[in-house]
Every structure is written in C-alpha cells, then in structure tokens.
Design goal:
The protein has about 80 residues and is mainly beta. Helix content is about 0%, strand content about 45%.
Length: about 80
C-alpha cells in the first residue's frame, strides 16, 4: 500500500490493560488525545517525517482502518520522538 496526495500511514499504539486487585481488567483510557504510533508509509519524500519515526498525532484529524492503522496529513503530526 502506498499513500498518495501527501498522506502518511501510521500504525497506532495498542491499548494497555490494567488489572485491578479485584480481578477486573480496565483498558487504558480510550479517548486520550493526541495518540502515538509509528510511521509505516509516506507519500514520496516528506520533509519532516520518514518511515520508522515514532510520532504523536491528532487522532481526531486521522482516519482509521484495519483497527490499528491511520492515514493522516503531515501537518497533523504534533511531534516526532
């Protein structure tokens, strides 16, 4: 898969589940903002982002597919780790 029109594909981080003392599993907060992930594909040569970068992005400006992947424009990336 190759993104077009200046898009980037990011593999999102997975949620951690925390086990309480009473045995109830509580998933990490689902609505945290922004989200984290790893860049897996970029459209041509992006000036700031490359494949393999760990990024923090605004998930409300991203579109999700296949449960853990997002496509997003470079300007919606908040930070590169």
């Amino acid at each position: 898969m190759k993104p077009i029109n200046g898009y980037i594909i990011i593999k999102g981080s997975t949620l951690e589940t925390k086990m309480r003392a009473d045995g109830l599993a509580i998933p990490e907060q689902l609505e945290h903002y922004p989200d984290e992930g790893e860049v897996v594909h970029v459209h041509n040569d992006m000036p700031f982002v490359k494949v393999g970068d760990k990024v923090i992005f605004n998930k409300y400006k991203a579109s999700q597919f296949d449960d853990i992947f997002y496509y997003i424009k470079e300007e919606d990336i908040v930070a590169i780790r």
